[in-house]
Structures are given as structure tokens and as C-alpha cells.
Design brief:
Blueprint: H1 9-12, H2 47-52, H3 57-61, H4 86-90, H5 92-103, E1 114-118, E2 124-129, H6 144-155, H7 164-171, H8 173-176, E3 182-185, E4 189-193, H9 194-213, E5 227-230, H10 245-270, E6 274-277, E7 289-292, E8 295-298, E9 300-303, E10 317-320, H11 323-330, E11 335-338, E12 342-348, H12 357-371, E13 377-381, H13 390-398, H14 400-403, E14 407-409, H15 414-422, E15 438-443, E16 450-452, E17 460-462, H16 466-475, E18 493-498, E19 501-506, E20 510-515, H17 524-540, E21 549-552, H18 557-566, H19 569-574, H20 596-605, E22 610-613, E23 629-632, H21 635-644, E24 657-658, E25 664-665, H22 667-670, H23 674-684, H24 687-696, H25 702-705, E26 743-751, H26 758-761, H27 772-779, H28 797-802, E27 822-825, E28 830-833, H29 834-843, E29 848-851, H30 864-872, E30 874-879, H31 884-892, E31 896-900, E32 916-919, E33 933-938, E34 943-948, H32 953-960, H33 964-973
Length: about 1000
């Protein structure tokens, strides 16, 4: 694929028709379902629009032959060609459910608009729900992204899970979206990755046990929509700067994770309609069109990876959800969501020479963060959209979680269809301007080279201002843009010996330079751009310092192929950027250990060391515990900063180094032009690379295929396992729901400021040697070198509860500015690890709450950031605002999310966190309304009003049941 569709590995792990089936056209032309397509504004349709007025969904679908065969259920990997509708023969029960969920044809209130798609020469490809057949003028004004919601609602309308009233709400979007109305959405499929997939399969296995306990059929616990689980989060950069790095890291990955992988393989056998992909670098694209028993409908996906949004760059709707919501969707429950507003983002002009897609996405991220798009769709349109490649669109769409939107959506146009043609599709349909909730505009010519950091993705810094910004950060008090380094210490030099050669570190010295993450490493322009920077540096005689941990983790095997084809990989190798693996390495904290000499120099001299990565997140403590400054940059800039060895540099005025001729080498000397990059892409990214990678899928992964697992439908829990453990969620489940549980005289476990991320709440990276989780593992005979990461142990609730609020960069106001994973046990005044304090509260039968500022729970869609607090006994979180997915996850685990009233927060109300809190929530669920106000009283006599963030009636039902999973179990026992 043009940007290596395994770029969409995380965003889309779905299948397409085989490359020979060249007539599959993206269902994304659902956007033309209203019967018109134009590049003009909606009230001034051009003659071009009239030309395409009859090009509705039917015209698009005439290119469809069939959707890809779905999947295998045994343990061995099979090619798409061998997966001939195996779900139909292996799982007739699941087939019936899937067919019912996909079509609802016999009961559907809108079956009158079912439209046949005829085959040339007779017969039909199938039927689809035609939106133009509704003859409703409001549909023509809907944003394209909203039409996807509308088609799903119409197709699934059974007047039970989805009603005619729900359909009307979507059609009347202009009036209903400002009112925050609730709608159901049933995605076509679900995507999991292994960090989130393991706990999901653990939950499903535990739910089967719970069904048994309640005397019901455990076989009801099976995914009813296609589920893909991709193993790409487990590889760590243990070995770098080596030709053998990728093989060595893969072997270590399997050694560390054999138990987890065996469990996932058991799940792929025990649960029907679930595919576990054991290897990475698979070249797949979104399914695009589903054909279930002759019913044609668009691909849509929700995923437990927050960067599922990458698929939106192709015009297929997808976004991240919590693992808990994903499990419910897998079991046939509709996702309850507030009908979103849609921000229209108009792009115009062209990018300047030397400006990369990363520069563009960091600029867009900053603009949208400032505009405020949390809970909204963003839809890109305008002449400028046609000037940016599909790969660049995917990069922008990928960063939706960082700018706060549910989706960053690019409707179909000629660029999309050219991309589809490269991978065996055909072309049609430009895009048109629609009516939106609000508008933004960006002239691409205004974008300039930049990076973001040192602690948040939306803190963009133009390259020309980087040096001055860095020194401001050293001066500023500790915060998102500050390290509070005294003036007299800012020029400190830490000298040390690196394997026998002299080395030194200063504040701002780069110690990690990683070309990593799905955001950039599957985009040929920036990947080949990085290779060109390396080539120019080698030719000039520059060399990256050997104590910098350099790594390259491509988003796909195709990336490796075109880097080799271009001849640029050898130059990246010379600069230390050897391929270390295929997956989410440094970006999610799997950066591996720094050399001991480097780590000691940083720690002993209190150096503010820097990491520069082509990732999408740089929150404190995420990349590496010893890199306090973390900057997001394009792959070519990662190479440039690695060569410079520091972020404390003005690229316009200061040399990067001295060349072999003794002359200074400047940034402009190594930076490739746009034309050079385009030439490299043109000559190196070849269609046959994709085809050969499709064929390589049949080879499988020997290490995965050799895993032996039992064939039982119920999992045999090993009480001694430190990876897979039966969680206590359903230990005392009853047939009837428990009802709302009040919060009375609760202590404050933690008191936070703004922007507490899910990494703060539940870190994914390394397990600190002195943490409660480390103590737990050591007591069970696990050596420190075998700790692995928190992310890899998400299948064990005992480890993860101890890892909750275990980020070493946590800032808790109860500690008066002290940084670390501890808190004050209020009754005694003792300073304890958060887990130990929570354990004391629970043992005493005392509820706890968390106080927080704005953007609580931003970052990854991490269900353990809700599961962990629940296991610690947290009953409520009171914050200024919540990130969308995390708020939903809290509800899903039975924790009450409350928001301070506008203009208020803990500080303005004089709350210190030493009070006790009672939340006056009715004890009868029928007396609670979505979004109602409640009074919170303290034992000091202070009281204040908060808004309860149960946003829908369905969420109230979840809360009444103690969470979404108990709700699903109780519903299934009634069937």
C-alpha cells in the first residue's frame, strides 16, 4: 500500500479482497449516498456535481465482487485464500447472530429502502440500504462522517437496540447534535492489540465462568462481530545498533511473553469469530465493504488502540474505545454515544519545500487542541486535501487522540481512490464541502518545520525557536514546559566513560533517538526522508554518538522493502538506526534499558536528558524513566537531532557537526528537498512489494505455530501465574443488579492537577525496582530481569492493581510538590505507596475518591486506568474535565465521574484533599438522570455542586449493574 497498509495494522487489522480482486471499491463512497458529489459548497453545486449526481452508492458497489474470506479459528495461520467462509461451517450459531446483527432485514423498519446491486449479465452482488431512497433533503447537508452513523442506524434498526427515533436524531443532526442527544452505534468489527487484548480475553474467559456460576450457558460468551487481535505491543528494544537486532528482539519477545501468547492462542481457538495475528508486518487494509449473506454495508471499526483513528485517513470510520466498551461491542451490545458535533477543517494551498507531514500534523494538533474538539468528529475538506497524500492523511488521522477528537476524518476523493487502485481497487468521486458545527482553516503554506514537547504532544515548538524554548524550559518552574534547573547548574557537563571511550552529557543531550510509532513509520515520504538525511550525513562524514540509543521500528515489512530498494537502509544502519522490530516500541515505553554508564551519568548528575522520537505521545515517564524531556519529531528530524546530539541547538545558525573535510556541517546541508523525497518515493515504493507481502502471510510465524495450548472452552486458571490471573470482577455476582452504591465519608486517595494521563494512572512501561508490583513479583520468584513491562502483565489483576498510580513522575498535591508514586494516608499522615494506602483504606472499609483538574485520563485508551482504581476501592473521580474514552471506561467499571461546575476546581473551592467526602446521589437508579447536578459535602462543612457524567441512559444501566460487564452477563442470562 502507498503508505504500507500495516501502517493500518494498528488502525485497521481487517482483511481486504485478495490483490487479484481488483474491483473492490471502498465503501467510503457511502459519502455519496445522498446522491450528489461535488467539490463546491453545498449551496452552489457545480455542473461537475450534476455529472455525478447519479453516481450513488450503487455506482460504487458495482465494482464489488465479494468481501474477503474472513478468518481461521485454529491455531495455525492461513492465507486469505484458504479461509473460505470458514466461519459459516465452523460456527453456525455465530453466523446466525452475525447475520442478524448485520442485516436485521426481516424486522427492519426501513426495509423498504433496501436496494439491489445488479451484476452485469444477471443476478445481483447483494443489497444495501440506500440513503437517497429516503428522499429527505436533510441528508444532503450531513457531514460524510455522520452519514456513516446514519447508515448503521438504518441497517440495524430493530426498534429495540436501535429505534426509528434514533435514526431521526441522526437525520436531524443539525438540530440534535448541539443538544448532546444519545444514539447507538454498532460497528462492523472490533480491533484489539495484545496489551489490551490479553485483559479482554481474560475478561471473556472470566465471564464464561460467571455464566456457569449463574447456571447459564457459557457458550453465549462469544464475539458476535469479527474481532482481530494483533500482537504488536510486546517487542522491546533490548538490542539496538546491530544487524541482528530484529531477530534478537523477537526471540526475547517470545521468551518473555510465551505464557501470554499461549493464552491468546487458546482464546483464538476457544472463542469463535476471533482472529489472533501472531506476527507483525502483515500488509492488510480495511475490509472496506462487508458482504454478509448478500447484505452490503460499510466497514467501520472500534479499537482498543486509541490510534485506531488512522483508518479515518482512508475514509473508513474508526475510533478508539475503552477495552470494556470493546468487549461489550464484541458481545453484540451497541455502543452508546452522544451524537457528535463535527468540526469542518478546511485545508488550502500547498506545503512548502522541506516541510513534512509530521510538521503538518503537529500544527493541526495544536490548532485543534486550542479550538477544543473533545468528543467531536473533525472532518477535513477543501482544495488542500487533494494536495496531501493518503499517507499524510493517515498521519493526521492517527493523531486524533492527541488533538482530542473522536475522529479526524478524510472523506473519499481522487487521492484516496488512487491509493485504493494501487492496492487493487478502482477510482471515482471527489469530495464536497458540507455543513459543520464549527469551522477551522489552515493554509498549508503556513506550516513550518517543528517539533513538540517536552512533555505534551500539543506543545508545538517551531524549529527556529527550539533553542530559546529549551532554555525557557530549563528556567521555568516544574510543569509541562519547565524543569526548574538553577542558572548555575544549566551548563553542567557530566563526563563518563562509554565502553572505554570518553563521553559527556549536558542538559538537553539526546540519549534516545527512535524512529518509531504507527504515526510516521509507515509514511514513505518521511521514512525515505530519514534515509536521505542519513545518506547525506554519511557522505559528509558525520556520525551519531555511540552512546545515543538509536532504533528503527517500521510500521510494516513493506517499509523495510522500500528502504532496501532505495539503498537508504545501509546509511541508516551506519548511523545506528538498525531495524529493531515491527511494533510499538519506544512510543509506548518499550525503549529498553539505557547503557548502564549513560543511566548512571544521568542519575548521578541530575541531567535533564532528552529523547527524540517520531511517535505520537511524549507524556512524562512514558518513553523512558530517565528522559525527562521527550520531543515528537518527523523521522528525518529524529536523525538530525541524533547527529547533533542535543536539542539545545539552533539549526539555522549552529552547525550540527564537523565534516570529514574539517568544515562545519549545517542542517541545510543534510536536509533533503521535497523533490528529492518525491523522487525516492516514486522509484522505491512499488506495487509488487505489497503483493509479495500478502503472499508471505502464508508462511506464518514458527514460534507462534509451535505453541501448544489446550482445546477447552473454559480456561484453567493457574493461581501461581504472574501473567494470567482470574480477576475478581464477578466473584459475588448475582442475578439481580446491586443498584447504585452511595459514597459516604470517603477519603481522598490522590489530589491531582491538570492533564493527568492514563500513563500516569496505569503506566505501560517498565516496572520500577522498588514499586509494590516489583515487590509482588520478587516474592513470587520472578527475577528483576524477567519483570517485563506493566503492559505485558495486564492479564494479571494483582500486578496491575499494584501498578495503578505507579508512574514515578506522578505529581500529587497531597505530597506538596514531591514527585513520585506515593500519597498521604490521611487518617495517619503516613506517606505510602498509593497501592499500600489504598489497601489500608479498603481493609478499614473506607471509600476513597480522586480529585483532579482538566483533561483527566487523556492519552491511551487504557482500560486498566479504570480497572485499577476500581480494584483500589476508588468510588468516584471529581475533575474539571475528562478525556472521552477514559470517562466511558470509568462508567464501565462502576466508578462515578463528576465534573466541577464551570470556573471551579479543587483549588478555587479550597479543597486540600484532607477532607472526607459524601456524594448525595439517589439510591434509586430511576431518580438519577444523565448529566444531573449533585451536591458533594465534606466533613469540614464545605459543600459544592458537581455534574454527574453519566451521559446516557445506557450508562445509568451500567452503573446500576456495577459496570458494563456485569450488565452484559445479566442480559445474556435472560436470553
Amino acid at each position: 500500500m502507498a503508505y504500507s497498509s500495516a501502517a493500518l495494522r494498528r488502525a485497521s487489522r481487517a482483511r481486504i479482497s485478495s490483490p487479484s480482486s481488483s474491483h473492490s471499491l471502498s465503501f467510503i463512497v457511502i459519502f455519496s449516498l445522498s446522491g450528489d458529489v461535488s467539490s463546491s459548497p453545498p449551496h452552489s453545486y457545480s455542473s461537475f456535481s450534476n455529472q455525478y449526481r447519479s453516481f450513488s452508492f450503487s455506482a460504487a458497489l458495482r465494482r464489488i465482487r465479494s468481501s474477503a474470506p474472513r478468518r481461521s479459528h485454529d491455531g495455525d495461520w492461513k492465507s486469505p485464500a484458504s479461509l473460505t467462509v470458514q466461519i459459516r461451517t465452523d460456527a453456525p450459531c455465530i453466523d446466525r447472530f452475525e447475520r442478524m446483527i448485520a442485516t436485521m432485514a426481516s424486522e427492519n423498519a426501513f426495509k423498504g429502502i433496501l436496494t439491489s446491486l445488479p451484476k452485469p449479465g444477471g443476478g445481483e452482488f447483494g443489497k444495501f440500504y440506500s440513503l437517497p431512497a429516503l428522499n429527505d433533503p436533510r441528508i444532503g447537508k450531513l457531514p460524510y462522517s455522520v452519514r456513516i452513523l446514519l447508515e448503521s442506524a438504518i441497517r440495524n434498526c430493530d426498534n429495540f437496540q436501535v429505534t426509528k427515533e434514533d435514526v431521526e436524531k441522526i437525520i436531524d443532526w443539525e438540530k440534535t447534535s448541539p443538544k448532546q442527544v444519545e444514539i447507538p452505534f454498532k460497528p462492523a468489527r472490533v480491533l484489539l492489540q495484545d496489551f489490551t487484548g490479553v485483559p479482554a480475553v481474560v475478561d471473556l474467559a472470566c465471564m464464561r465462568d460467571a455464566m456457569n456460576k449463574l447456571g447459564s450457558d457459557s457458550g453465549k460468551i462469544n464475539p458476535l462481530v469479527p474481532v482481530d487481535l494483533v500482537i504488536d505491543h510486546s517487542v522491546q528494544v533490548d538490542v539496538a545498533r546491530s544487524e541482528n537486532a530484529v531477530n534478537a528482539n523477537m526471540e526475547l519477545e517470545f521468551q518473555r511473553n510465551k505464557e501470554r501468547f499461549a493464552f491468546l492462542k487458546w482464546g483464538s481457538n476457544a472463542f469463535q469469530n476471533m482472529l489472533v495475528v501472531p506476527q507483525v508486518n502483515l500488509e492488510y487494509l480495511g475490509r472496506v465493504v462487508f458482504n454478509t449473506d448478500g447484505m452490503l454495508y460499510p466497514d467501520s471499526v472500534v479499537g482498543t488502540d486509541s490510534h485506531t483513528t488512522m483508518i479515518d485517513g482512508l475514509g473508513v470510520a474508526g475510533w478508539g474505545v475503552g477495552g470494556i466498551e470493546a468487549e461489550a461491542a464484541m458481545l453484540g451490545q451497541p455502543l452508546s454515544m452522544v451524537l457528535p458535533g463535527v468540526v469542518g477543517f478546511k485545508l488550502s494551498g500547498n506545503l512548502r519545500n522541506g516541510v513534512t507531514a509530521t510538521d503538518l500534523v503537529l500544527t493541526v494538533t495544536q490548532m485543534l487542541r486550542k479550538h477544543g474538539v473533545v468528543g467531536k468528529f473533525v472532518e477535513f475538506y477543501g482544495d488542500g486535501v487533494g494536495k496531501i497524500s493518503l499517507a499524510d492523511r493517515a498521519t493526521i488521522a492517527n493523531m486524533s487522540p492527541e488533538y482530542g477528537a473522536t475522529m479526524g476524518f478524510f472523506p473519499v476523493d481522487h487521492v484516496t481512490l488512487q491509493y485504493l487502485k494501487l492496492t487493487g481497487r478502482s477510482e471515482e468521486t471527489p469530495q464536497q464541502e458540507r455543513v459543520y458545527s464549527s469551522y477551522l482553516q489552515l493554509d498549508l503554506a503556513d506550516v513550518e518545520p517543528c517539533i513538540s514537547g517536552p512533555k505534551r504532544p500539543h506543545d508545538r515548538v517551531p524549529l527556529k525557536e527550539m533553542k530559546s524554548d529549551w532554555h525557557s524550559c530549563l528556567d521555568n518552574k516544574v510543569g509541562f514546559k519547565g524543569f526548574a534547573i538553577p542558572k548555575e547548574a544549566q551548563e553542567k557537563v557530566a563526563k563518563f566513560s562509554f565502553h572505554g571511550q570518553p563521553a559527556e552529557l549536558k542538559h538537553g543531550s539526546v540519549v534516545i533517538a527512535a524512529i518509531t510509532s504507527c504515526t510516521n513509520t509507515s509514511n514513505p515520504s518521511v521514512m525515505l526522508g530519514a534515509g536521505l538525511v542519513a545518506k547525506k550525513a554519511c557522505e559528509l562524514g558525520l556520525q551519531v554518538n555511540p552512546w545515543i540509543k538509536t532504533s528503527l521500528a517500521p510500521g510494516s515489512g513493506v517499509v523495510t522493502k522500500y528502504l532496501l530498494q532505495s539503498g537508504l537502509q545501509k546509511y541508516l544502519n551506519e548511523q545506528g538506526f538498525h531495524i529493531v522490530g515491527y511494533g510499538c516500541t519506544t512510543c509506548i515505553g518499550n525503549s529498553g534499558e539505557l547503557d548502564e554508564s549513560v543511566a548512571s551519568a544521568i542519575s548521578e548528575n541530575d541531567i535533564v536528558a532528552a529523547a527524540v522520537l517520531s511517535g505520537n505521545r511524549n507524556f512524562e515517564g512514558r518513553v523512558h524513566a530517565l528522559t525527562r524531556a521527550n520531543y515528537l519529531a518527523s523521522p528525518p528530524l529524529v536523525v538530525a537531532y541524533a547527529l547533533a546530539g542535543t536539542v539545545d541547538i539552533d539549526f539555522e545558525k549552529e552547525p550540527i557537526g564537523v565534516g570529514k573535510d574539517g568544515k562545519n556541517v549545517y542542517f541545510k546541508d543534510i536536509w533533503p528537498s521535497t523533490a528529492e523525497v518525491a523522487e525516492a518515493v516514486q522509484s522505491s515504493v512499488l506495487p509488487n512489494m505489497f503483493k509479495s507481502t500478502y503472499e508471505a502471510i502464508t508462511e506464518g510465524n514458527p514460534m507462534w505455530n509451535h505453541l501448544s495450548v489446550p482445546a477447552s472452552k473454559l480456561y484453567s486458571w493457574d493461581p501461581n501465574s504472574t501473567y494470567i490471573h482470574e480477576p475478581p470482577y464477578f466473584k459475588n455476582i448475582t442475578v439481580d443488579p446491586p443498584g447504585p452504591s452511595g459514597v459516604k465519608d470517603a477519603y481522598c486517595l490522590l489530589n491531582f492537577g491538570d492533564s493527568i494521563t492514563t500513563d500516569h494512572i496505569s503506566p505501560a512501561g517498565s516496572i520500577h525496582k522498588d514499586s509494590p508490583a516489583a515487590k509482588f513479583l520478587l516474592e513470587r520468584g520472578v527475577e528483576r530481569k524477567e519483570f517485563n513491562s506493566y503492559g505485558s502483565r495486564r492479564g494479571n489483576d494483582e500486578v496491575m492493581a499494584r501498578g495503578t498510580f505507579a508512574n514515578i513522575r506522578l505529581v500529587n498535591k497531597l505530597l506538596n510538590g514531591e514527585v513520585g508514586a506515593k500519597t498521604i494516608h490521611v487518617p495517619t499522615g503516613e506517606k505510602l505507596y498509593v497501592f499500600d494506602a489504598a489497601t489500608r483504606y479498603k481493609a478499614a472499609g473506607q471509600d476513597t475518591i480522586v480529585l483532579a483538574g482538566a483533561e483527566y485520563g487523556s492519552g491511551s485508551s487504557r482500560d486498566w486506568a479504570a480497572k485499577g482504581p476500581m480494584l483500589l476501592g476508588v468510588k468516584a473521580v471529581i475533575a474539571k474535565s475528562f478525556e472521552r474514552i477514559h470517562r466511558s471506561n470509568l462508567v464501565g467499571m462502576g466508578i462515578i465521574p463528576l465534573c466541577f461546575k464551570h470556573g471551579e476546581d479543587a483549588d478555587s473551592l479550597g479543597l486540600t484533599g484532607h477532607e472526607r467526602y459524601t456524594i448525595d446521589l439517589p439510591s434509586n437508579i430511576s431518580e438519577i438522570r444523565p448529566g444531573q447536578d449533585v451536591t458533594v459535602r465534606t466533613d469540614t462543612g464545605k459543600s459544592f455542586t458537581c455534574t454527574v457524567r453519566f451521559d446516557t441512559e445506557v450508562e445509568l444501566a451500567y452503573y446500576n449493574n456495577g459496570g458494563i460487564l456485569p450488565y452484559v452477563i445479566r442480559q445474556l442470562t435472560k436470553q
